[in-house]
């Protein structure tokens, strides 16, 4: 009987040890699963945060692109208007050139060739510059009139 009692006690003791071991194993596994769940929740929160940031960035960039498109179209229209004005000014310059002889500076060079006085080039350059300043002042005055005319006629178009 004593042997039976020892056998029962040892079996009970083994079962209690196995139950404690099993409980410790279950606690360990439960803690590991909770840690994995916490990490998964953290990753989900980060992914959601990145997703909302990307949506905000997409919205911001789309607004910026719409503004750039608008600015581009306005600049394009301004450049078209400037191109039209430049074309008008070029036509007016061509008209002014046909009205004024471009040979005003050439006359002095012809005189130098006739006299064969190339040694006096420094003094002649001063005279050529004087003639050039006279021609430039005449053309500048006429261009000022042309620009004022165009600014008056095209100011209502813009």
UniProtKB/TrEMBL annotation:
Where would one find the signal peptide in this protein?
1-18
Protein keywords: Signal
Q: Does the keyword Signal apply?
A: yes
Q: What is this protein called?
A: Uncharacterized protein
